[in-house]
């Protein structure tokens, strides 16, 4: 059993599809009323997608309290120094409502076709580790910073602005090396149930915790965000992520108090507003109550 005792949070995972723009704005209104986070997937090579970094400022402008972040930023197509400056700028403009999550990259032929680096798994891991260091330097408030890595360099750049709040760096990673690095050097983990189902999470959490303890960090300081894709139905299903409210409630409660996930972002086919409203009205309060009861 692993429960880090962190506050329970909920949010939405949305797609930046151009054809769904009005729907996305409607979802942002719901999120501002009912959730803590909006995560926007970042796949610049998708022809039907708007650019995530153009959409996120619009979501911030149309909301007042919910936080927004890329879920997760495609690092091979976005230089980390520029990413860090953009993230800090959005945080300042929104009054501290932006978060940053980075991914090492996926769909490499599509990335290469758009002019990005076509990296091996080792190179992608190295680049992500360097990007975390670059980001922290760009947020440091120092007069001038330098970094000489294999993939990225800073040659006396003047960083700024600094974020409006103590912004962490979250990583969407899954391999042993990067999970341990996350524990040592990052602030949050963002896996998805479509890639990492619940039964895989405990061993991955242990990797993060081992890395944190080796660096003298408290594992409970690291947030654990789970993108949960599925649908809420009226009949029980073998897959709890396509089952009833009761199944969803039981599954998310166990993930919180047994597996240590503290934040759940709901995604559903077509970004269905009815499903989102049902998640907000029926699943979220039931999970909050169940977790509170289990925690005593």
Automatic annotation (TrEMBL):
Domain Luciferase-like, first and last residues per copy: 20-238
Matches recorded under InterPro entries: F420-G6PD/mer, Luciferase-like_dom, Luciferase-like_sf
Keyword match Secreted: no
Entry's Gene Ontology molecular function annotations: oxidoreductase activity, acting on paired donors, with incorporation or reduction of molecular oxygen
Transmembrane segments: none
SUPFAM superfamilies listed in its UniProt record: Bacterial luciferase-like
Keywords attached to this entry: Oxidoreductase
PANTHER family documented for this protein: 5,10-METHYLENETETRAHYDROMETHANOPTERIN REDUCTASE, PTHR43244
Protein name: N5,N10-methylene tetrahydromethanopterin reductase
């Amino acid at each position: 059993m692993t429960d880090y005792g962190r506050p329970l949070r909920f949010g939405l995972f949305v797609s930046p599809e151009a054809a769904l723009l009005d729907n996305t704005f409607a979802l942002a209104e719901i999120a501002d009323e009912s959730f803590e986070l909006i995560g926007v997937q970042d796949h610049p090579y998708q022809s039907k997608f708007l650019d995530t970094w153009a959409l996120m400022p619009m979501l911030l402008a149309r909301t007042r309290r919910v936080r927004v972040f890329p879920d997760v930023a495609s690092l091979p197509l976005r230089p980390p120094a520029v990413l860090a400056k953009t993230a800090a700028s959005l945080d300042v403009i929104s009054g501290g409502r932006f978060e940053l999550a980075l991914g090492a990259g996926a769909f490499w032929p599509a990335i290469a076709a758009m002019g990005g680096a076509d990296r091996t798994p080792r190179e992608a891991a190295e680049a992500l580790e360097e990007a975390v260091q670059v980001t922290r330097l760009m947020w440091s408030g120092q007069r001038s910073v330098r970094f000489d890595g294999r993939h990225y360099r800073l040659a006396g750049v003047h960083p700024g602005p600094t974020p409006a709040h103590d912004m962490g760096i979250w990583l969407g990673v899954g391999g042993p090396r990067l999970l341990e690095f996350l524990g040592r050097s990052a602030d949050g983990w963002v896996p998805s149930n479509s890639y990492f189902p619940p039964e895989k999470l405990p061993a991955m959490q242990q990797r993060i915790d081992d890395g944190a303890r080796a660096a003298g960090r408290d594992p409970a300081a690291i947030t654990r965000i789970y993108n949960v894709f599925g649908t809420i139905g009226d009949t029980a299903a073998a897959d709890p992520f396509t089952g009833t409210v009761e199944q969803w409630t039981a599954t998310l409660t166990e993930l919180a108090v047994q597996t240590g996930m503290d934040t759940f972002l709901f995604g559903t086919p077509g970004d269905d507003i009815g499903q989102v409203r049902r998640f907000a009205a029926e699943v979220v309060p039931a999970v909050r109550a169940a977790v509170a009861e289990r925690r005593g």
